[in-house]
Structure formats: structure tokens, C-alpha cells
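Lecture 7 notes: from sequence to structure.

We start with a single chain of 193 residues. Read the sequence below before looking at the structure.
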Amino acid sequence: MAAQNQTEQFLPKEPLDLPSEPLDLPNDMHELKTLLSWKAPGRPFRKRGKEYYLTSLLLTLFIEIILFLFSQYMLMVVVLSFVFAAFALVTVPPHDFKYRLSTEGITIEDHFYLWQELYDFYFKKREGIETLHVRTKTFLPGELIIMLGDLDKKQLTSLLLQYLPYREIIKPTFMEKSADWLARTFPLERKTT
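Now the structure, written as C-alpha cells:
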């Protein structure tokens, strides 16, 4: 009996300050409304030519030879795995995702993000395709990259402005600047116009 009293002592008690009846909130606060929904590819995709694969393989071979000369066999495996993952992402087109904006937040496939978890939004071109970037307050995922598909940018902006601030200019990070410089200086394929 004494042991039972001791365990009950550490169990949480019911809060006494809860209202006995639900609060009378306006009807629009109770209902979840879908504001906009659409389907679009999961990531930007552009078909690559033979020149891209050949340049990538030659660059990989050069890096592998240098690593072999310095006896960095584990690093050689890591480089090969990165090249394999890059080729897989470039070769296989993405499937269509379901995106939905509601009065509660943003849904991407099966993942739901509340408006309170999101920070701001901006638009950016990636691979020549307009994308929506929504920054989160938490470190992970950090940023949601949403493909617009056939969606009108102005309509989406007017809906999002009700919940999140819009940033016209986002200062690129050091990594983004470095990646842009590398892509401009050492392109893996020529631009086709």
C-alpha cells in the first residue's frame, strides 16, 4: 500500500484550471479550409546531355587518381558514392508531389508545417524554373523548396502574405556563392540556346 502511494505521488495530476466547456470561438477559427492545392514535380529537373556525363566522369577519374596517390582509399569510396548519387538524381526525373495551402499551414505530400513553424518566403529560379522557398524557424529542415508547376506566382504570393512575410532580396550564403562561381567557371556542359 505504501509503494502504491509513493508511485501516485509522482504521477501528473489533472490541471484544475481547464475550462469545463469548450471556448466559444468564431466559426472560421474551427474549420480547416484548403486555400490552394496543386501538383508539381518534387525538385527542379533538366535532362542532361552526354557532355555532362563525360565531363563528370573525367573529373571523377582525376580526383580518384589524386586520392589513390595519397592512399586515401576510403575517401575514394566516398567520392564514388557522391558521383553515383549525383548521376541517379540527374538521370531519374522526379515524381509529382501534392502541395496544399490551408488556413493551418502548408502540406507537402504527407508532411505538414504549421504557419507558426514557418518564418518567411521568397522566390528563386533554379535550373531555369521558378521555385518557392519557405524558411522555417527550426534548423531542420531549414527551408522548404516548393515547385510552382503551372501555378500563378501572384496568386500564391497574395495567399502567403496573409500568413508569412515576403522577402524580395535574400543575401546568398557563402556556399551558394561558391557553388554559383564553380558552375560559371567550370561548367560540366555547354549552355544550349
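The first helix runs from residue 2 to 10. Keep this in mind for problem set 3.
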